[in-house]
Amino acid sequence: MTKIAIKKHAKLLLCTIGLLTLFNCKESSVSDKKAYTEEELYRPNFHFTPKKAWMNDPNGMFYYNGYYHLYYQHYPDSTVWGPMHWGHAISTDMVTWTEKPIAIYPDEKGYIFSGSAVVDLQNTSGFGSLKNPPIVAMFTYHDPTKEKTKEPGIQSQGIAYSLDEGLTWKKYEKNPVVEFPSIKDFRDPKMTWDNIHKQWLMVLAAGDKTIFYSSKNLKDWTMLSDFGKNIGAHGGVWECPDFFPMMVEGSDEYKWVLLLSINPGGPNGGSATQYFVGDFDGKTFKLDESFSKDINGQKGLWIDYGRDNYAGVTWSNISETDGRKLFMGWMSNWDYAQKVPTQKWRSSMTVARELKLIKENNHYRLSSVPVRELQNYVANTIKKKAFKITDKKTVLIDKSSIDLTRLDIQFTLRNLKKDIYTFSLCNSSDNNISFGINKKDKYFFIDRKKSGDLSFSDAFAKQISKAPFTEDFDKIDVRVIVDKTSIEVFYDNGKTVMTEIFFPEKPMETFSVTKEKFDFTIENLTINQLNFN
């Protein structure tokens, strides 16, 4: 068969079964010399991104009257970090977002660093009423003057309240409400209503540990205990904690989960978020014994092993009828966040995720999967029930059938051997972002060494990111969310997750898989194109 005949046969296969084989990445499209704008090439289709300027940590996330509120660290005058404000966006489904005016501005007490917000339904604070309950936010004041003069008390905690469902805010006249002058890094308060012990709880990061507080009115706080010194990963400063009880899937057991971000010290360099599982008696958090052994053996367990999911926290006021624990992180890494090649805006958030607490063989693990609301945006679907991969390289789909910049891909791999299975998105500019499973050395991976523009940072792609696994398997479920310049990979129903960004020279055009030696089977391949118009 001639090369021309092969190409015609391949396109026929693509149209009939959505499966294309024996296609080279560069051959997959006619040369495209279009000059793409930054908006066309890099602005995400559905991950939240500010219209302009700098963004980092998600803050103050709460749900009320049909809206999910997302606040975030924001500097409106530049695309690099500066005097922090709280930006604001709202959504009815955590997928499409409407950006609102800046919510909280810096003042004479300092910049407005990260924090949280709760709906004070019983008006314990006295800021509102039972008919119009106040939204109460707590944030870290960062005093730049004291930082320069090296005075104590650089960081303290202030509160503000809103009586119009989070649109406008009034700061409490008696701020700050929590001070600790002897600790330099003393920040990122996360409040929650502890329905088990009937108290407001707050946890904040204090250098190399967390400190727990309780309150009856959200204004007066009592220190309870601390946790974390010499426990878990300590490659950098602890930041952005979150603390909440969770039911163990499929049981009546519950445990408390502590999320803790760290910069640097992540499993693949730079910033990342670890977690802890244990018990809380209303005053003290104690690690579960089996979990303690696990983190000692693995030097920390991580909510995401990719390089681009940091400072993530959960939404407050999710109703008991919903029952989900909903999470979102900042999709970047402090190793290069201020250098990425976007000039109008900087950074995005991850896709919203549902957290679940799993117990298997007496080991607790936190899993995460994309929120179910994402399925409401499926516009085009290609399915293939089962097929065997026998060639060294097989292209599964190309841009003639589906838009590869807005995908939700799901499949099951079966009959896996000691081999390396690599999935790749690539284009005719020879850019590719790859992920997969190395069963020889027992790790999942993402490789962005050839993903496009790497010139902005030597740290961006200096190594392949890895997530280890200890138990062998011959079958695994995989889900992949793709949005122009990001990929989020969920292995084994989200028990291992990897999130990374990339900056191609043009949109990706093919999705393929390679193996080194052994044949294997892909089952229930579902490729969903997501539309948001």
Describe the structure.
- It contains 4 helices and 34 strands.
- The protein starts with a helix and ends with a strand.
- The radius of gyration is 24 Å and the shape is globular.
- 7% of the residues lie in helices and 46% in strands.
- It has 533 residues and is mainly beta.
- The strands form 7 sheets. It has a 6-stranded antiparallel β-sheet with strand order 23-34-25-30-31-32, with no helix packed on it. It has a 6-stranded antiparallel β-sheet with strand order 24-33-26-27-28-29, with no helix packed on it.
Please summarize what this structure is.
With 533 residues, the protein is mainly beta. The chain contains 4 helices and 34 strands.
Unreliable sequence segments: 1-24, 27-31
| Proportion of residues in extended strands | over 45%
Number of separate strands: 34
Treating each run of at least 4 consecutive H or I residues as one helix, how many helices? 4
What composes the largest sheet? 6 strands, antiparallel
Look at the helices and sheets and give the structural class.
mainly beta
Query: What's the arrangement of strands in the largest beta sheet?
Result: 23-34-25-30-31-32
What is the helical fraction, as a range of percent? under 10%
What is the approximate shape?
Answer: globular
In whole angstroms, the N-to-C terminal distance is 43 Å
Mean pLDDT: 93
* CA gyration radius, whole angstroms: 24 Å
